Amino acid sequence: MLLKNTYNEFVKILSKPRSYLGVGALTLLIGIIIFAMKVDGKSIISFLTSSFEQTLTFNGHVLNGNLIAFIILQMLIVHVPLLVALVTGDLISGEAAMGTIRMLATKPISRTQIVLSKFIAGALYTLFLTFWLGILALGVSRMIFGTGDLIVLNSDGLVILQDADILWRYGAGFAVAYLSLLTVSSLSICLSAFAENSIGPIVATMAIIILFTIIGTLDVTVFDSVKPFLFTTHMAAWRSFFEDPVSFDNIRESIVILLAHNVVFVALSVFAFNRKDITS
Amino acid sequence: MNNEVIVSVEGLSKKFGTFEAVKDVSFTVNRGDVFGFLGPNGAGKSTTIRCLLSLIAPDQGKVSLFGKSFQTNRREILANVGSIIEKPDFYRYLSAEKNLEIFARISGAEVSKKEIQEMLDFVGLGDRGKHKVKGFSHGMKQRLGIAQTLLHKPDLIILDEPTTGLDPQGIVEVRNLILRLKNEQNKTIILSSHQLAEIELISNRMVIINQGRTLVEGRVDELLNAQELVVRFEVDRLAEATSLLSSAHATSEISIISEKEFDVTMEQHQIPIVNKLFVENGINVTAIEPKRKLEDYFLKTIQS
User: Fold this and answer.
1) Mean pLDDT across chain B
2) Which residues of A touch B85 (CB under 8 A)?
3) C or N: which end of chain A has fewer Cβ atoms within 10 Å?
4) B74 in contact with A at a CB cutoff of 8 Å?
């Protein structure tokens, strides 16, 4: 019954126009970035590298597909959660608002299975969105701009990664980025289990992400003990794969924290939905 | 009709905050019953029906369907129940056919595409199967709701206001459908409706609840026959007619309604006798209307 309802959930997601909004927005944004880099990429790169030019000389193909993909990921990883929440935040509360939750809950499927099937469908949608992001950011960029060594500027300075050493980093980076987006998906479905309207959980998800991000960036000692446990602190963990050497301990910690958040959000949703009186 | 109890509700109570929606409601529904579930708005009907379907957890009391409780047999019970609660809501962005497919997939029964089409034909939506539900009228959604209810061939059907929004022809069709389900397939049907005439026509048993409490429960014919019939007469000479009636039937209770109309309580077999009496005395009778028995009974019960 879980599989059957997961299939149902996927049919519903695929039939909703808003599901394509995220895909469309992502395509448009990446298209704009690629177009901008094609037109004016060289001057942007020379501006960024100008501060190093007194000590370093950059030879070769700096403006390549690997760099464009990194820039795209940096820019969009903040916005993709909204596109995820737009669909997943509606999964339970949207049914309550439409009244179809009544029909669902009177069928011979447990409420736990109803919630789990929505989580699975949400996870699949998020996976698709991450894949799409990967195909456009990395695949299309490499097709247009070609490949080459990747120059990454981080807090410790400049990191240059060999072309042959990059693809696995992107693979692992996208996997961790997916886990971050999955946490956003789980959070919005969890909020959706408590709400009776579509918009509330979507807005609340974004509000929580913004609030946690602000707490995470504020240099105030009172928040220091909380910061390591906020999921937003670990949403940029994918970047760690583009350090040399890679800090696997930090990545492992981020994965554990993000997974723990997912487990808590799923458990909370199942608990709340099982106890909920369906009066809509 | 047999006495196998299909639905048993004992001492059901439910509070929302401090508001007691249902207080100690009890009733039973037997196999093959068309069970009328009556009460004014806010009486607790919907809350009770939602408890019957495990949408709401009761605070107190016991609900069992087919002799089983929801705590241990929820899936088994719901696989054998079809329902429309308040109004049928569907996925507006999907077609009627797709909506039925979605609900059929989790109904616990194997329902083929052919059966879905047959069901759409059955409720008169055969040519609208591919159309999105967002373009459907309320009446069409009601029909689709009935199709969804019957799709997995349940033994117990719970219909909450199934004729709301239907045109007169639609109401007759739903009535006939309910009678067919009862007579041909021996389905058990719980029918909540404000259409008292419909309930009177098709229900064999009923319960009336008000302010969350059970007022009466029993066989419709027995409950209605326990009260006298009220008949409205329209005559050309009202004073003479009422005087004649008073002298002929000293115990009759007469209420003047207008210059030409009056109500009188009597037994059904007395109607032609009274009519003949008026005609023999030169009083022209322009209308005789037995007032709806259930409506009268319902109002009396609620008011008492």
Assistant:
1) 87
2) 102, 106
3) N
4) yes
Q: Which CATH architecture has domain B227-303?
A: 2-Layer Sandwich (3.30)
Q: Does B142 touch chain A (CB under 8 A)?
A: no
Whether pLDDT at B250 is above 60? no
Minimum-distance CB partner of A106 among B55, B57, B87: B55
Question: pLDDT grade, residue A40 (50/70/90)?
Answer: confident
**Strand B205-210 and strand B254-256: pairing?**
unpaired
Interface test with B, best of A7, A103, A273 (most B CBs within 10 A): A103
Q: Where in chain B is the domain with CATH 3.30.70.100?
A: 227-303
Q: Does B70 touch chain A (CB under 8 A)?
A: no
Task: Cite the residue boundaries of each domain of chain B with CATH code 3.40.50.300.
Answer: 5-219
A100–B89 CB contact, under 8 Å: yes
Q: Do B85 and A8 touch (CB under 8 A)?
A: no
Query: What's the CATH fold of domain B5-219?
Result: Rossmann fold (3.40.50)
pLDDT in tens, B99-158: 999 999 998 788 889 999 999 998 888 899 999 999 998 888 888 998 999 998 999 999
How much is the average pLDDT of B56-81?
91
ipTM of the prediction greater than 0.85, yes or no: no
The dihedral through the CA atoms of B41, B42, B43, B46 has a sign that is positive
Is the per-residue pLDDT at B253 higher than 70?
yes
Check whether A127 has a pLDDT greater than 90.
Answer: yes
Q: Which residue of A has its CA nearest to B15?
A: A277
Chain A interface residues (partner B, CB cutoff 8 A) = 1, 4-5, 7-8, 11-12, 15-17, 98-100, 102-110, 275, 277-279
Contacts of B148 in chain A (CB under 8 A): 103
Cross-chain Cβ contact A107/B53 below 8 Å: no
Q: CA of A5: which chain B residue's CA is closest?
A: B106
Three-state SS for chain B is: CCCCEEEEEEEEEEEECCEEEEEEEEEEEECCCEEEEECCCCCCHHHHHHHHCCCCCCCEEEEEECCEEHHHHHHHHHCCEEEECCCCCCCCCCEHHHHHHHHHHCCCCCCCHHHHHHHHHHCCCCCCCCCEHHHCCHHHHHHHHHHHHHCCCCCEEEEECCCCCCCHHHHHHHHHHHHHHHHHHCCEEEEECCCHHHHHHHCCEEEEEECCEEEEEEEHHHHHHCCCEEEEEEECCHHHHHHHHHHHCCCCCEEECCCCEEEEEECCCHHHHHHHHHHHCCCCEEEEEECCHHHHHHHHHHHC
